[in-house]
Amino acid sequence: MKKNNSQTVLLAGATGYLGSFITKALVQGQYKIKLIARSPERLESLESETVKIIKAEVTKPKSLKGICEGVTTVISTVGITRQKDGLTYMDVDYQANLNLLNEAKKAGVKKFIYVSAINGDKYRHLKIFEAKEKFVSELKASGIHYTIVRPNGFFSDMKDFLQMAKSGRVYLFGDGNQKFNPIAGEDLANFIYELLDTNVKEVSVGGPDILSLNDISKMALQTLNKPVKITRLPDGFRKFIIWSLRKFTNVKTYGPIEFFLTLMAKDNIAPKYGKHRLINFYQQNS
User: Fold this and answer.
1) Could you read off the pLDDT of 207-219 as tens digits, one per residue?
2) Which CATH number do you get for residue 129?
3) What distance in Å separates the CA atoms of residue 235 and residue 221, rounded to the nearest whole number?
4) How many domains does the chain have?
5) CA separation (Å) from 217 to 2, 210, 279?
């Protein structure tokens, strides 16, 4: 995996699901790395001559002052699915990334890689994508060379099906034939690593297997040695749930639900990449 590692890479989100895999890839590639962490003790075992751990919070611009000095490339996986700690999607997915981008511009960073999500530009009406795509617009207008990565669902998101399967039944909306190809965190990290020396501006990516919701439900149940019992609810019920949550709850409640229910209502198929398969992930986590 060794590449042109004369670069110094700053990674924001290093302690997260995807960030931990990107960190591993960068360390193996012998890059000079700066890792931002709110709790640096979680990364202290990685610190070395080429790996610097920096205590900072992307939501607090003062803590980022000068953080990009000497950096050639910034990678940001900063983003939330569920709002917590009093922080909104706009606080994190938009403003925190903008804080980082502002520092990158001041320091003359050459490239900024941002991880969004598949078809985010088509779903800007969703609260989570509204924030992500607002930042994408800022990044495109920044003058910095950029790459926007749009991955399909993560394997970790597919745990919800495994959790449902434990009860002996999986519930779906519609006929269950909607297809997508979720991707493992390790595969996505390697994909992002390979983008470091490219001029790709925007790219979607998914895992090696295209699966329907029926396929995934069956896989989850069979992994747990359960009979295949799938209840398919009318799609109109899904729409009613989204409408009701938007009307009677706040964005903290409905944001992640409308995100998943909307994206899983249609096919979302990205170019295939990687070697890890969902069946193996389920077997390891069952």
Assistant:
1) 999 999 999 999 9
2) 3.40.50.720
3) 22
4) 1
5) 39, 14, 11
